[in-house]
Amino acid sequence: MPAKSEFMLTLESSCDETAAAIVDADLNVLSSVIATQEELHQKFGGVVPEIAARAHLHRILPVIDEALKKANKSLADLKAIGVVTQPGLVGSLLVGFTAAKTLAMVLDIPLVSVNHVEAHIYACRMAAGREVFPAIGLVVSGGHTNLYDCTGPLDFELLGSTTDDAAGEAFDKVASLLGLPYPGGPSIEKLAALGNPRAHAFPRSYWHDARLEFSFSGLKTAVLYVIQGQPPHRRDPATVTPQVIADVAASFQEAVIDVLIRKCRQALHQRNRRTLCVGGGVAANRRLREELQKLATQDGIEIHIPPLSLCTDNAAMAAIGWEALNRGLTIPLDSDVVPGLVRSPRV
Ligand code: KG4
Ligand code: ZN
Description:
It is a single chain. The protein folds into two domains: 7-121 and 313-326, 2-Layer Sandwich (Nucleotidyltransferase, domain 5), CATH 3.30.420.40; 131-310, ATPase, nucleotide binding domain (Nucleotidyltransferase, domain 5, 2-Layer Sandwich). Helices cover 41% and strands 18% of the residues. It contains eleven helices and ten strands. Strands 3-2-1-4-5 form a five-stranded mixed sheet. A hairpin with a 4-residue loop joins β1 and β2. α5 runs parallel beside α7 and α6 crosses α8. It is globular, with a radius of gyration of 20 Å. The N and C termini lie far apart (48 Å). The structure holds 5'-O-[(R)-(carboxyoxy)(hydroxy)phosphoryl]adenosine and zinc ion. Zinc ion (ZN) binds at residues 116, 120, 141, 280, 313.
């Protein structure tokens, strides 16, 4: 049996998933519990911050209990608590952080802060079961589309990000335009399989630009014009057949993937890296995974994409907290959450 000192409770509540996991110091995930709020936000087509925060409040303690129970551990077995403190919705972050602080104080164990976006990349390290850095890291989620140069598990330099919508957010908003359910990514992926990805030549922002930036709002508007006509509401809705919607979904998905692949290639080239780590909810997309594999083969790149369970939001990936703990980077009980992403001065 592993010793008492080897287990960390990790908590994630940055957006709309309330999650807890028990992870040992060798990064084995003993349990990973996720309470999704999808059904609460579905009718709004996106996450409503106040509803999310209130739902976290109801779910956080049962989720922690279940994580402990599934791992067959008790609070007394914990060596430390790792909690996502940034970035995210402030009300949501505060719920997880308050639970974590309280437990750390009562149990008198250290507290470590986890950056949610970096944890998405760390999921690749966990899935690989070995070191993967240095690498270029791409996080594609509902809140972020970020490229990093990762020289170590805690050393992430932000190379570029989106100037407007995140890739996942674009999936969600376009799904809403197409009348598809939230979350939009899986809905669009399913429908895109029935459509023609070359039906519409949607815009690919920053294509001929060396900057590692993304923009998806023009793409979203281009979809709007196809569905509603230009100016909007000119198109007869009767002409928007299921095949039209499938073609738009496929062409939209292709445009997003093209841009993601191109920017990864540019980042790998600019930083002379041979390894690419991809994380975040959009990395669950099978077409994207296919194209990433193609990139790996064509360019001789080593590619890491976590299994689906580690792509979308979860607390297991907050095992990056072990890296902080091993370096003595604990945080005091009077520290606070940081809702925004701290951008590197380069961008
Ligand atoms: O990482 P994540 O679970 O939460 C955030 O940190 O935002 O990502 C959620 C996002 C949503 O926008 C969702 O539509 C997108 O990931 N997503 C997908 C797929 N599955 C989830 N996007 C494209 N294809 C998918 N299969
Ligand atoms: Zn996420």
